[in-house]
Each structure stands twice: as structure tokens, then as C-alpha cells.
Amino acid sequence: MAATHSVAGLHAAQGLTFNVSNDNNALFTTQPTIDGVGNLTYTPTGTRGTAIVTVTDDANAGGHALTSAPQTFTIAVAAARQNVSVPTLSAWGLLLVAVFAWFGVRRSRTE
After folding, report:
1. Of 77, 65, 70, the residue nearest 54 (C-alpha)
2. pTM exceeds cut of 0.70
3. In this structure, are residues 31 and 22 in contact, taking their beta carbons and an 8 Å threshold?
4. Per-residue pLDDT at 59
5. What pLDDT is stored for residue 40 in this prediction?
6. What stretches pass through the bilayer (predicted)?
7. Strands 71-77 and 40-44: what pairing?
8. Residue 70's Cα: distance from chain center in Å?
9. Distance between CA atoms of 86 and 71, rounded to whole angstroms?
10. Which residue among 1, 13, 59, 104 is least crowded, i.e. fewest CB within 10 A of its CB?
């Protein structure tokens, strides 16, 4: 995600600061931030939930402080998967899969 600022005459050197807050701080180990270029970064805790993030930007253009209207968006975090088990096949199961695959290939070639 990248943000842009559309104030006439504003240059990057004039200082653009993003103010970021959210309604669910417990969802993040590193709270959402936006750098001066507009890149959003955050680190979720791995728990499931949503956070409504509110952003304003402060700029200094020609000695005048400018603050944008608040913008909001939602970050949704799915729970991290833990202890995922992968089913395994026995030697007989693998043999049956191979036999069925071979017959399927042979049958499709003769039809």
C-alpha cells in the first residue's frame, strides 16, 4: 500500500508525516505505521481479528501546517495455522495410487 499527498506545491523535502491509529492494538506486535514515502508496515500477533485504521497526514508547505481529513481502512488478520498434520500413505496405499494412475493413463491412450 502506498499513500500520496495532493497539496499543490508540496515537495517531499518539505516534510510529510503520517499519523496512524487503530481500534485494536492487541492485534499487532508492531503497530501499523506509514513512512514518509507512503509504505504501510505492521506485524500481526497471529491472532484472528480486525482493526479499523485511521490515517491523517501532516505537511508543512510554505510555512503553513496542513492536516488532511482522516482516512480509514480495515486490516483483517486470519489466525495462524499451527500443528498442521499431513496425512501419509502406507506402502500399500502408494502402490494402489500408482496402479490406478497407470490404468487411467493406459485406458485414456487406448480410447
Report:
1. 70
2. no
3. yes
4. 75
5. 92
6. 89-105
7. unpaired
8. 21
9. 43
10. 13
Ordered per-residue pLDDT tens for the chain, 111 residues:
445 444 444 444 456 788 999 999 999 999 999 987 788 999 999 889 999 999 988 876 667 777 788 999 999 998 766 665 655 555 555 656 565 665 555 544 444
CA dihedral 75, 76, 80, 81 (to 10 degrees): -150
Note whether 78 and 49 are within 8 A (CB).
no
Residues in contact with 94: Cβ distance below 8 Å, sequence separation at least 6, in sequence order: none
pLDDT at residue number 95? 59
Query: What is the reported pLDDT for 104?
Result: 57
Residue corresponding to grid cell 481479528: 49
Cα end-to-end distance, the chain, whole Å: 53
